[in-house]
Amino acid sequence: MNTITFPTAEQLNKMQTPCYYYDMDLLQGTLDAIKQEAAHYEHFDVHYAVKANANSRVLQTICQAGLGADCVSGGEIKAAIEAGFPADKVVFAGVGKADWEIRLGLEKEIFCFNVESVPELEVINALAAEAGKMARVAFRINPDVGAHTHANITTGLAENKFGISMRDMEMVIRLAQQMEHVTFIGLHFHIGSQILEMDDFVALSHRINELQDKLEAAGITVPHINVGGGLGINYQQPEAFPVPDFKAYFATYAQHLKLRPGQHLHFELGRSVVGQCGMLISRVLYVKQGTNKQFAILDAGMTDLIRPALYQAHHAIRNLTSAAPAETYDVVGPICESSDVFDKGVELPRAQRGDLFALLSAGAYGEIMASRYNCRTLPGSYYSE
Ligand code: LLP
User: Which of 56, 157, 201, 272 is most deeply buried (CB count within 10 A of its CB)?
Assistant: First the structure.
């Protein structure tokens, strides 16, 4: 069922907090929606951006649904392959690939390296020669298209460190075509994350059309276009919108991006696949009366879910234990940092020590970004089934 289902009292009793809880039904429902909507179009290949969540159960479920894997490190390549993703569905992106990571990709014969600079291309060519292999490469082009999202997660502007400038695109393709151990197979783009305005994807499509026209005029064919990820989720009302609007998302590209005959369009979705199926479960340690506010102090902190501290992100909070009349709380963690605040001035059923709180929409960039700061233990994970 495509709803967010909270853990039962019995499940909660067994949990050691703080921990992540994954609603596997919702994950499956989300994957079904992706497959169903992408299947309306020929040659739409969906990859999962492993960086959003590399929990092994989550990865295996996504792999079984038939998605490919978008990896940004050797560790992610290993995690994806261990979870069962076939190497020929693995793409490897990242602005700073180390030699061992490139060698691993070559050894596994991954589908494609998304290359971000000329020096990187040269290293891939040299390492491929050493290994006696051919590396398939796509160039990540910086499309200079802004996205309406938080500045820390915008990536497609000229000022960002990512990608190769449009001006250099033809030159790098020609360079690759002259190299003996790389095969140029496509162009890669990514403009940012948590994007809810389809117009941003329309702008990217228009930019890609321009670039393709240019390359076509120069006699260069591009078998694969990869538009990255970025589709956002509803953090404000997760229960009402548990599954993102994949229909509108794919339709936007189908309508605006002019694919050439036989050309494949690749997507690298992270947040929209796993965001809503995960929640962080935490216990109230203390309710503290401040000078003019009251604090609910949780056993979870920014080490378990860093998004509020890092991006001022909003995660809806629910009190799973109490249905008492609401009071107003600043919900904070135990870490020795003033930014260790999940939310301020939240109305929640009156809380007391021992209550369990859920922070919703934490499936993406939650567990995977947890740290051991303050010598804390990493949060564990539990599943609905
Ligand atoms: N492809 C590339 C090249 C990317 O850089 C990213 C995300 C994705 C795909 C997946 O994007 P998604 O579909 O998840 O938006 N930690 C931040 C988000 C960082 C996103 C980094 N790149 C957060 O918690 O909001």
Answer: 272
